[in-house]
Design goal:
The complex is a heterodimer of chains A (about 250) and B (about 325).
Chain A lengths: L4 H17 L5 H23 L6 H23 L1 H4 L1 H4 L7 H28 L12 H24 L3 H14 L12 H7 L3 H13 L7 H25 L3 H4 L1
Helix pairs in contact in A: 1-6, 2-3, 2-6, 3-6, 3-7, 3-8, 3-10, 6-7, 7-10, 7-11
Chain B lengths: L3 E13 L6 H10 L4 E14 L4 E5 L6 H8 L7 E6 L3 E4 L12 H11 L4 H15 L14 H13 L5 E5 L7 H16 L3 E5 L3 H7 L2 E6 L2 E6 L2 H14 L6 H35 L3 H15 L1 H8 L1
Parallel strand pairs in B: 3-7, 3-8, 5-6, 6-7
Antiparallel strand pairs in B: 1-2, 1-4, 8-9
The chains are: A mainly alpha (about 250), B alpha/beta (about 325).
């Protein structure tokens, strides 16, 4: 791993420069964009759900925060192999490096948005507590989970070039199934359980339990979060291992 | 101990119209039974071994499987059959200028490329100025890479890969980079590196370059190995004759025959050239233009019998 540290740093700095070089607002925009989205959503959906759910803006923000990170990380991760095909077909470097470096950019964005999130939490009058440190757990799971999904998608994208369109549709569906703007209390119990099959929803719910409910999720819930992350990264790793030398034929 | 050892290396490519198709198209074709993947062997049972300090020249026409073999040596591809033993670090110069990022500056690209070739940051810090100086890009360091001419790009790539000391150097058509002056400089650099005991593989369409630099020859044709030998002159002669006649040798006798034919052809051509020169002179003499005739005679004498002229002067 140490052998590739320099490469990793250079790739991260390259992805970062390319991403922000041409925009006036630069990194500011990537924080501003989810905030504007939050504003629109709270204006629209606040009408319907705000009286069911105290601190509705924070409720919404939890969903947006996690989901934007997931979307950003996987959508950019998907292209990581194809974007670097010129390099992959000429030099023997571990291919997952390209995905990881894209993930770092997304993670930095997430970190910035997370700071704004805590600012909002404070403004909304929710008291900070040591319990908040528990949030590191779903974040860690989410990072691993996103890498796993990124591995799968980037491999698929090499084989099938229309995956990105299909994935857009899938992301939209996933968005509606993640209870980002609606509350789940009104649904029957089995629907609420079924929602837990959606890993992104699980991570969002973890955030809400900690921040809004002032509670700590159960041990099985922790295991569920971990399970999704580990399974995803194992599947992705397996695909990469199996196709490591096959990618080249498709590029 | 062999630095590079290829034991019966065969590499299979898959081709067909599966590239750039989407999932939807794939499913439809699968259902219609129209999905076809063809296989073809880019290299068939190639065997060779290189010791430290060897310089292997791979010769063969287009599509002979040279570049594919190089990809196997550099570890980008794995042999479908057989195996490849590599003992040492490999610096590959495969189609140099690709893989750079147009948006980044020259400096950033240099570091990135260095990182990809497996060097450390400290090493790059030390070598950076030298690389830029060698590539003659001192005034372009902060320019976006896309603003550079293709010659400049190749120069940079060559400089990065050469100003390091790999154990194994792979050169795929890279010695014809840049303008005349740079080509000379890079040729000299190459010789310097080779003299330092590096093991190298050279793919070049310039046979004179192969003759000059290599001490071993691997001749491939459509993936098949025609020969692996250290008789550089014999095989290069035979190959050049093959390029003319397209007669593929099947055994050693064929190779020697080809080489002989080549020698004869060279002799004939030389003879032919002399004949035309003499003919030209005769025509001049007949046309009784004294000045021109004298000039031509002198030129011929200078070339053929310079000692006569010296005697005459004395």
């Amino acid at each position: 791993m140490k052998r590739y540290q320099f490469l990793f740093e250079e790739l991260v700095s390259r992805d970062f420069k390319i991403k922000y070089k041409r925009t006036v607002l630069g990194m500011g925009w990537s924080v501003l964009s989810p905030l504007l989205q939050l504003l629109v959503m709270s204006l629209v959906f606040g009408q319907f759900f705000a009286h069911d759910q105290p601190h509705y803006t924070i409720y919404l923000f939890c969903g947006n925060l996690v989901f934007s990170y997931y979307k950003d990380s996987t959508a950019t991760g998907m292209r990581s192999l194809m974007d670097n095909r010129g390099i992959i077909s000429k030099i023997n470097v571990p291919k997952y490096m390209f995905l990881l470096s894209k993930n770092v950019s997304a993670l930095i964005n997430f970190g910035l948005t997370l700071c704004v999130f805590f600012l909002f939490v404070a403004i909304d009058g929710i008291a900070f507590s040591p319990r908040f440190l528990m949030l590191l757990y779903p974040i860690a799971c989410l990072i691993v989970f996103n890498i796993g999904v990124g591995l799968v998608l980037s491999a698929l994208f090499v084989f099938f070039r229309d995956i990105n369109y299909l994935y857009d549709v899938f992301t939209l569906l996933l968005n509606y199934c993640s209870a980002i703007f609606y509350t789940v209390d009104r649904f029957p119990g089995w629907v609420q359980t079924a929602l837990l099959c959606n890993p992104v929803y699980c991570y969002i719910k973890y955030f809400r339990i900690i921040v809004l409910d002032g509670d700590i999720p159960s041990l099985p819930y922790h295991l569920l979060c971990l399970f999704y992350a580990v399974v995803m990264v194992l599947i992705g790793g397996w695909i990469y291992k199996k196709n490591n030398h096959k990618f080249l034929y498709y590029m | 101990m062999a630095i590079i050892k290829a034991n019966g290396v065969s590499i299979r490519y898959i081709t067909g119209d599966f590239k750039d198709i989407g999932l939807k198209e794939y499913v439809v074709r699968r259902l219609q039974g129209k999905y076809q993947v063809k296989e073809f062997w880019a290299d068939k049972n190639v065997t060779f071994a290189l010791e430290r300090g060897d310089m292997l020249g791979i010769i063969g026409t287009n599509g002979a499987g040279k570049s594919t073999l190089l990809k196997a040596v550099s570890g980008i591809m794995v042999p479908t059959k057989g195996n490849m033993e590599i003992n040492g670090s490999v610096a590959a110069l495969l189609e140099l200028a690709s893989g750079f990022d147009g948006e980044l500056t020259v400096r950033e690209n240099t570091y990135l490329r260095g990182a990809m070739l497996g060097y450390t940051r400290k090493f790059m810090d030390e070598k950076y100025d030298e690389i830029i100086a060698f590539a003659e890009l001192k005034d372009f360091q902060e320019r976006p890479f896309k603003q550079l001419s293709s010659g400049m790009k190749s120069r940079l790539a060559f400089s990065i890969a050469c100003l390091v000391s790999p154990d194994i150097l792979i050169l795929d058509e890279v010695l014809s980079v840049g303008d005349g002056a740079f080509r000379k400089k890079s040729g000299n650099k190459m010789k310097e590196i080779l003299a330092s005991g590096v093991t190298g593989i050279l793919v070049s369409h310039s046979i004179s370059q192969v003759r000059e630099l290599c001490n071993k020859i691997l001749w491939l044709d459509h993936g098949a190995q025609i020969g692996f030998t250290d008789e550089v002159t014999l095989y290069c002669d035979a190959y050049e004759e093959f390029l003319q006649t397209r007669k593929l040798p099947h055994n050693r006798q064929d190779v020697e025959q080809l080489a002989e034919d080549f020698a004869r052809r060279c002799e004939e051509e030389k003879h032919q050239k002399q004949m035309t020169q003499t003919q030209k002179l005769e025509t001049l003499l007949e046309s009784s233009d004294t000045e021109a005739a004298v000039a031509a005679s002198l030129a011929l004498l200078k070339e053929k019998r310079p000692e006569l002229l010296r005697d005459a002067n004395a």
